């Protein structure tokens, strides 16, 4: 398993764990994992990542009404949305730098 897949898996597992466990630095850990994950996003997957980040940011509470598990699903998707938002932020910065560098697109 490659390093990028391991980081993405750890970020997803952290999003699940922090939905059930309260921790003071959970948001920081999710942000750092998101930034680390964003570093490994290849050019052809950048658009998909940004679309996923937008949709999770907007719609993570859609499952809140599901009896018994809605609250947990909302927390999991909100946490994973935070990971994708941080990854998306780094993707935007990297794309900007690539365009500004000599020889860029």
Automatic annotation (TrEMBL):
The keyword Transmembrane helix is annotated on this UniProt entry: yes
Keywords linked to the UniProt accession: Membrane, Transmembrane, Transmembrane helix
Segments crossing the lipid bilayer: 6-36, 48-70, 76-97
This protein's name: Uncharacterized protein
